[in-house]
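Board notes (copied after class):
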Amino acid sequence: MGVLSDPLSDFLTRFKNASRAKNDQFTAPFSKAKAEIARILKEEGYIWDYEVDTSGQWPVLQVKTKFVDGTPALTDLKKVSKPGRRQYVGAQEIPRVLNGLGISIVSTSKGLMSGSQAKRHNMGGELLALVW
C-alpha cells in the first residue's frame, strides 16, 4: 500500500465500505485522531465499539460496525475538509445534517467533537466530516 495523503479520509472510507459490505468489523492503522473519531461515532451510535490492538509491529484500530435489523447504522458520510481545501466554520455556521438526524465532526482547539458539542461550547473549527 502506498503513502496516504489523507489518513482520516482513508479511515472514513474504510468505515463506509465495511458498512455497505455488511462487514461486522474493520481495521485501520492507529492514530489519536482516528481513535477520537471512533469515540465520537460510538457516542452517537454509529458503531458498537472500538479498541486498539498493539500486538503487532504497529498499533491497529479495530472497529465493530453497528447494524440494526440487518441494515447498517451508517447510511452515508461525506468528508468535507480535504488536504487541498480546508473548510473552517464558526460556532454558528456548523451545519445541521439531515435536519438533526446526522452528525458533523469538528476539529476544535479543545479536540475533536461532534457539531452539537461544539455549538454547546460555542466553538468553531475545521469541519472534517458529515455523517448520517
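Comment from the instructor: DSSP finds three helices and ten strands in the chain. The chain has two domains: 7-72, 77-131.
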